Amino acid sequence: MGRAPCCDKDGLKKGPWTPEEDQKLIDYIQKHGQGSWRTLPKKAGLARCGKSCRLRWTNYLRPDIKRGRFSFEEEEAIIQLHSLLGNKWSAIAARLPGRTDNEIKNYWNTHIRKRLLSMGIDPVTHTHRLDLLDLSALLTSSLCNPTSSQFDLSGLLGLEPLVNSELLMMAQNLLSAQCQNPNILGQGLPEQQHPTPQFQEQLASFQTQQLQHLSQRLPTCTPSNDPFPDEARLMQPNVGQLHTSADFNPWQDIIMQANLSQNDFVPATSVNYESLDPSFTQLIADISDVCGTSSQGYSLTSVFSTPASSPTPLNSSSTHLNSSTEDERESYCSNLLKYQIPDLLDVSNCM
DNA sequence: AACGCTACCAACCGCATTAGC
DNA sequence: TGCTAATGCGGTTGGTAGCGT
């Protein structure tokens, strides 16, 4: 069943490429350009299948590929885009110049995914998963190593640029309560590195209270009613951090490329869609594709016809896509398309 | 030194989509 | 319109380097 592997023919090499093979491929493409991958290997003197040549070129040899570690901004963008597009690596790569879909996919699976899990965030849905979080270790570590009254929770959470806001607030609540009333944790902070059993027990008790408090404020798994409860307020620390850390917002590029301002959206009928940058409209299309909005009655037009003064407070975090069912996902996407795009454009006022 | 484990990432596989006839 | 080849894409595999024991 299925198509036979393209490299099954005798004599075709598989596995890692040698520098000589790379050079042959580079030389050929520089002379003749890329394309016609099936005939390329023979013409270039390579004992490889065309598919292998194409992958080698697009994922490694292309001159515009950026090598090296991902920057903070790139990582932020990946998380943001992944929350919107899912595993559409090529769509994500299209918005990260110099990075390939393969590279982004690998980086996601080996770095970001694990980090999100350690933060208690489901990397698939970008929702908070307290069962994934080793909260006890996190807080115990912090409480045993207080360096000042201003705890660096960003660092505590793994130097994450995109802090799980709920976790941040919960931890801050715990720490501020502890600072205001050291007795809340019994004997206060133990000086030794290893907390006493009594301390751990009291910490666990306090954690339970915090978790109960948190569970009441967290979005439930039925976001169709209100997928973004009070999140504008909750996300303020995140937004501030993003802006101050590197003055970076991945949407800004899109907005700048589209040469848009909020005024472009009010009134809606004045929007000249043809003037929009293709990358911007493609993003909308990708999101629509992911959300299946074409069948839901939403379109590019409906997005742009939404008043900029969104009635629903939204955040720019990638960690709030709470859509474990189709209905929930549709609801999220509907709100995203109706409100978040215009809201995102508000950052143009800060530029 | 040898072994096992883990992380990383290039490369492969196979299905989906597009293009050309 | 249907077929086939070409290309795109996402999931997975396997080699290897680094580290700890």
UniProtKB/TrEMBL annotation:
The keyword Membrane does not apply. This is Uncharacterized protein. Residues 9-65, 66-116 form the HTH myb-type domain. Residues 304-313 have a biased composition (Polar residues). The keyword Transcription regulation applies. It comes from Musa balbisiana (Banana). GO terms for molecular function: DNA binding. SUPFAM superfamilies: Homeodomain-like. Residues 314-324 have a biased composition (Low complexity). Keywords: DNA-binding, Nucleus, Repeat, Transcription, Transcription regulation. Residues 9-61, 62-112 form the Myb-like domain. GO terms for cellular component: nucleus. InterPro entries: Homeodomain-like_sf, Myb_dom, Myb_TF_plants, SANT/Myb. Residues 304-325 are annotated as: Disordered. It is found in: Nucleus. It comes from the Eukaryota.
